[in-house]
Hints:
The protein is mainly α. The protein has 2 domains: about 20-120, Rna Polymerase Sigma Factor, Chain: A; about 135-215, Arc Repressor Mutant, subunit A (Orthogonal Bundle). Helices cover about 75% and strands about 0% of the residues. The protein is built from 8 helices and no strands. Helix 2 (about 35-65) packs antiparallel against helix 3 (about 70-85), helix 6 (about 160-170) packs across helix 8 (about 185-215) and helix 7 crosses helix 8 (about 185-215). The chain is globular and about 70 Å long. It starts with 11 loop residues before the first helix and ends with a helix. Residues about 1-30 and about 120-130 have low confidence and may be disordered.
Amino acid sequence: MHVSGPACSDGPEESVESDSVATADVRAAEDPGSGLRSSHDARVRLEQAASESFDFIWRSLRRLGVRPEAAVDDAVQRVFEIAARKTHNVPAGMERAFLFKTAVLVAAEERRRQKQTTERAASAEPADLESPGLDPERALAARRERQQLDELLDELPENLRTVFVLFELEGLTSVEIANLLGVPTGTAASRLRLARQHFHDGARRLRARQARSNP
């Protein structure tokens, strides 16, 4: 469950890069197996993070606007496929953050696709998140609440929606969100304040519409 440099010059940056490459080549020559071990270790770390974060990535994709359930399943698979191809680009300890950022990009792409094909499938969506033990009346109420939440989340700009989902629905702290997104804590907190304001404004508009339709 998002994800050509400038022309070469003869300046000091190129010299530093060349020295670094040369040093890496020397180390690889001294220990030919080091590169293989490093690649294997990175793959193992990413696979472990994927296993531990599967439910989190699934929920995040759903709450970031991917639906119906079958589309979420496909999006999760794409996130992990992208991660598998980018294993060598993921620093140690950043696997979960990489998976989430990839999920954000995949969700944005899926929302664009849905918009282009008018596949806003709320009415056709199966009861994918309902508890199986709910009686029909409670299940219907839960479905309506989920649809209203989807509607309110859809009104949020993407960067605000992301922090809102992580804080309000996933229970992460501002510090955890900042680490996950790779932004300053103040930025995460500021986005959260704006997201809450947008969400509550949207909720008031929704209640007003409901009051007009049910006098």
